[in-house]
Amino acid sequence: MIIRTLKEIRQSDRNVKSKGWESARLLLEDDAMGFSFHVTTMRAGSELKMHYKNHLESVMVLKGTGTIEDLATGETHDLKPGVLYALNENDEHIVRCETDILTACVFNPPVTGAEVHGEDGAYPAARPHVSAGSA
Amino acid sequence: MIIRTLKEIRQSDRNVKSKGWESARLLLEDDAMGFSFHVTTMRAGSELKMHYKNHLESVMVLKGTGTIEDLATGETHDLKPGVLYALNENDEHIVRCETDILTACVFNPPVTGAEVHGEDGAYPAARPHVSAGSA
């Protein structure tokens, strides 16, 4: 059994800050749960364009308000406590934060913690993908 | 992109109530995320013995207080907002609720929504497990 606290993770190297967001990674790939679990804050006033080409992600809003734009459809949805969005098609999207938005996020496959967002807004795959047609 | 609200799930058949707990399943197996995501409330005064033999589960406490006992080690840990426990070894455990405890739970493999807790405190596997030695 793993027991962790948000407080201890925030004081560790599992807490990552970047422009417009901060993420406390409570579970990463090396915890062998098959997913990673993060408590992520997106900062008031930020406009975050993201495209996780190699991961599926679900995000539950715990606090705060803003919007999410689905770039495939052009639709915009309100974000507020109790709203969940799931990027089941690796959906390219923009989150716009009216206030700080506190979220609980799950990634599959799990994030290793070593990724950085590429210029394309994606995390690289944890391992090279092998297509069905390759040797 | 999937957009769901806790309010709509609570009014649907994805909200399940049982003795001592209630669970709103925002993501289930048929959402094809590779995990399921539930907002679960364990009721004040409840003592819940659980053993998910076929699933790994992580639980983040959002509100409320209680304890979790790891039956393999006999250790007891406090539960309060910001504490996460992960049953990375299918750990048999007892949660004792001082107050209602509101949690965000992730299951791998995802729950289908059709499971019931067996007498052994487990959910059945979503699909029959095939051991490495079987034909």
UniProtKB/TrEMBL annotation, chains A, B:
Keywords: Lyase
Chain segments annotated as coiled-coil in the UniProt record: none
GO terms assigned for molecular function: ectoine synthase activity
Known pathway: Amine and polyamine biosynthesis; ectoine biosynthesis; L-ectoine from L-aspartate 4-semialdehyde: step 3/3
Reactions the enzyme catalyzes: (2S)-4-acetamido-2-aminobutanoate = L-ectoine + H2O
Entry keyword Lyase: yes
EC number: 4.2.1.108
GO biological process: ectoine biosynthetic process
Record keyword Ribonucleoprotein present: no
Function: Catalyzes the circularization of gamma-N-acetyl-alpha,gamma-diaminobutyric acid (ADABA) to ectoine (1,4,5,6-tetrahydro-2-methyl-4-pyrimidine carboxylic acid), which is an excellent osmoprotectant.
NCBIfam families attached to this UniProt entry: PRK13290.1
Family indicated by similarity: Belongs to the ectoine synthase family.
Protein name per its UniProtKB record: L-ectoine synthase
Organism: Sphingomonas baiyangensis
Top-level taxonomy: Bacteria, Pseudomonadati, Pseudomonadota, Alphaproteobacteria, Sphingomonadales
